[in-house]
Amino acid sequence: MQQFDIIVIGAGPAGSAAAAWAVRHGASVALIDKAVFPRSKLCGGLFTERSRSYYNEIFGEDIVYDNYLTQNAISFWHDKAEVATLHGIPPLHLTMRIDLDAKMHALALHHGAQDFSGQSISEIHADGVTLSSGQRLFAQVIIGADGVNSGVARHLFGQAYDKATIGFGLEVEVPFDEDNQPLTPLRIDFSAVRWGYGWSFPKHRSTTVGVGGMLAPNPDMKSHLGSYMDSLGVDDQQPRVKGHFLPFGDFKTHPGRANILLSGDAAGLVDPITGEGIAFAMKSGQLAAQSAMDAIAKSTPHAALNLYRRELRSMHLNLRIARNLRRIIFSPRWEQTFVSTFRKSSTVRLQYMRLLAGEVEYPQIAISVISRLPGYLWTRLRS
Q1: CA–CA separation, 346 vs 354, rounded Å?
Q2: pLDDT band at residue 258, thresholds of 50, 70 and 90?
Q3: Is beta strand 121-125 parallel, antiparallel or unpaired with respect to 128-131?
């Protein structure tokens, strides 16, 4: 039997961030993951300047980009036609999650988290967990950072996500060889799927190609991926197709219960427009850890959720606004109007990139969009 201040379940970006922040501020932490690191993780691996800022703050050092490819240009496409290519943008870093997650996990352990990787959980209790080995771990607060299929969320709510609103993504890793050079520049295709997009992210060892969006309007996502790969000239017979659910803006307004908190994908904290999840994962892990420590310091661990919800207000506001803006960007009714505006307006394109860099937030984006609504409506009426 071992006692900790906090148990963190899941050692991806959210969990490792929570563990690192907590131990750096004096808490004792058990960091549990069923996998042994390094381990593969299905993800586009886009690491933005927003992510970099959070990483520096949480882990106390800058990220090393030796294994990653940094891009300063991005190309946007729609219906197999180029809409715009932007150069000189804030850096976008293309990572392999097997490397990125292993580094974050190692940093959390370096700062003092106790390693319980390679161990699954057989039971979750209000005051701790039972590992599959039979070992009991006790803590005042539990943080579930175990992804979109969260076992902690199932323990709390009976299901990890709402099947009616969940998103889904498919990806392939296209390796480099003499006949297959990197697909450059970084590319996003708005029309690859309905209510979503396709992506081609070139990296050092491969190019990640994928499609993702709302699951309900895309029952045959695999055919969308095949069509997208054809448009890129990628041989769809060779790469292995991998799929995963995407909490595409379907965040939990009550991310936990009492002294059990959810962070990252487990809490549905993924941008519903850009699909960015790493930044929100790290930040929510940090906020969950800080809320846990604040509650423990007051000897009221069951107040952790209330504290955490207050800390998440800004993030939730951004996600609500983004979810509403998605209706303009991805809705079939407005799609052509948005693409036309995106093609013509350097301001709209700049705002999109500043959003990824963390220089603006969605309330500012919303003001910009609302100011253009009369133009959107006029374009729609004439079409």
Answers
A1: 12
A2: very high
A3: antiparallel
The single-letter DSSP state of residue 291 is H
Angstrom distances, CA of residue 358 to CA of 72, 194, 236: 16, 27, 35
Question: How far is it, in rounded angstroms, from Cα 12 to Cα 279?
Answer: 12
C-alpha–C-alpha distance, residues 93 and 121, integer Å: 34
DSSP string, 54-96: HHHHHHSSPPP-TTSEEEEEEEEEETTEEEEEEEEEEEEEE--
pLDDT digits (tens, 9 = 90+) for 326-369: 887 787 777 777 788 778 777 777 887 778 777 888 887 777 66
CA angle 378, 380, 383 (to 5 degrees): 110
* Side chain identity at residue 183, one-letter code: L
In three-state form (DSSP H/G/I as H, E/B as E, the rest C), the secondary structure along 219-273 is: CCHHHHHHHHHHHHCCCCCCCCCEEEEECCCCCCCCCEECCEEECHHHHCCCCCC
* H/E stretch holding 200: strand 196-202
List, in order, residues 6 or more apart from 320 with CB less than 8 Å away.
none
Q: Other C-beta atoms within 10 Å of 382: how many? A: 7
Least-confidence region, from 125-129, 175-179, 331-335: 175-179
Joined tokens for residue 283: 């930040």
Contacts of residue 225, defined as CB under 8 A and 6 or more positions apart, other chains included, come to 170, 172, 198, 209, 210, 211, 236, 241
Query: What is this structure's pTM?
Result: 0.91
Phi, psi angle pair for 141, to nearest 5°: -135, 140
Q: How far apart are CA 133 and CA 297, in angstroms?
A: 31
d(CA 60, CA 241): 36
